[in-house]
Write a structure and sequence with these properties.
With 56 residues, the chain is α+β, with helices and mostly antiparallel strands. It has one helix and three strands. It has a three-stranded antiparallel sheet, with no helix packed on it. A hairpin with a 2-residue loop joins strand 1 and strand 2. The longest helix is centred in the C-terminal third of the chain and has 25 residues. It starts with a strand and ends with a helix.
C-alpha cells in the first residue's frame, strides 16, 4: 500500500476508493479511528472462527 503526502495528512488509492488519513478529522480519518475499526473487525472474525471450532 502506497501512501502519498498531501497538505493535511496522507492518502492512498485503492481499487474502489480513496482513503484520506489525517490527524484532523475534517480532512480524513484519524489514525486512531482506523486502528479501532481494524481491531473490531478482527475480533468479530476471531469470534466466528472460535464458534466454528467449538461446534466441531
Amino acid at each position: 500500500m502506497k501512501f502519498t503526502m498531501k497538505t493535511a495528512g496522507y492518502f492512498t488509492e485503492l481499487p474502489y476508493w480513496r482513503i484520506d488519513v489525517s490527524s484532523d478529522g475534517e480532512n480524513g480519518f484519524k489514525p486512531v479511528d482506523l486502528f479501532v475499526t481494524s481491531i473490531a473487525v478482527c475480533s468479530g472474525m476471531l469470534r466466528k472462527i472460535f464458534d466454528k471450532c467449538e461446534s466441531i
